[in-house]
Design goal:
Residues 186-197 have a biased composition (Low complexity). The chain is 47% helix and 16% strand. It is of the alpha+beta class and 212 residues long. It has two domains: 10-84, no CATH class; 87-182, no CATH class. The strands form two sheets. Strands 1-3-2 form a three-stranded antiparallel beta sheet. A two-stranded antiparallel ribbon has the order 4-5. A hairpin with a 6-residue loop joins strand 4 (115-122) and strand 5 (129-135).
Length: 212
């Protein structure tokens, strides 16, 4: 028998904080990242009470909970000050710019995407840590506003076509060189007896009759 989904108790809204477009850069993934950043500053027991809904952070608590949560409200309000400058992490960059991981790595390597430094985090439930590049929000906003990914893709396509052309030319030259060497080898005359080196003293050795 299928288990019935657990019913959530009725909730009441305590506070709502709209997140500005300059902070989210139009990305739901970025909004989720801001939520996680704010949650990390809250006591563990209250973190799940804060969520993101249609571009706003909302604090909802059970209706029968009469605690005022002023401390949580103050903490969220303080954390959101200057949230527009929160570094942009890789998955957010990919969502904001609608690019792939391969494109992000390539454009970061050649300097078109400018790193604002690195960040190291420990994966939940694991001992291993990972380090990744983060990006300055205004740089990502500028890249987005100027639609630079489209231009960069065109540049990459032209560069790839040129690389293929050069590789094909190099391969053709290599094949031509091998063919020329084969023709030279085939047309070279076999060495004659006259051209063969003679051993010194061979005539005297033959006259002695030692070969008979």
């Amino acid at each position: 028998m299928a288990r019935q989904p657990k019913q959530r108790p009725p909730m009441r809204l305590v506070q709502q904080w709209p997140i500005s477009p300059s902070a989210t850069l139009g990305s739901a993934v970025r909004a989720k990242g801001i939520l996680l950043e704010v949650r990390a500053r809250l006591p563990f027991a209250t973190r799940k009470l804060l969520d993101v809904e249609t571009g706003s952070l909302v604090l909802r608590v059970p209706e029968d909970d009469d605690y005022d949560y002023h401390d949580v409200v103050d903490s969220v309000t303080d954390t959101l000050v200057g949230i527009e400058d929160l570094p942009v992490i890789p998955r957010e960059v990919e969502d904001i710019l609608t690019i792939t991981s391969a494109e992000r790595h390539r454009w970061l390597k050649d300097g078109r995407l400018q790193s604002a430094g690195t960040r190291t985090v420990k994966l939940r439930g694991r001992a291993r840590k990972i380090t990744f590049h983060v990006f300055e929000p205004r740089h990502i906003e500028d890249v987005l506003d100027r639609d630079m990914p489209s231009l960069w893709r065109e540049q990459d396509a032209l560069a790839a076509a040129e690389n293929r052309r050069r590789a094909a030319g190099k391969a053709a030259l290599t094949r031509a060189g091998k063919l020329a060497r084969k023709k030279d080898s085939a047309s070279s005359p076999e060495p004659s007896d006259a051209a063969s080196p003679r051993l010194k003293g061979w005539e005297e050795f033959d006259l002695d009759g030692l070969l008979r």
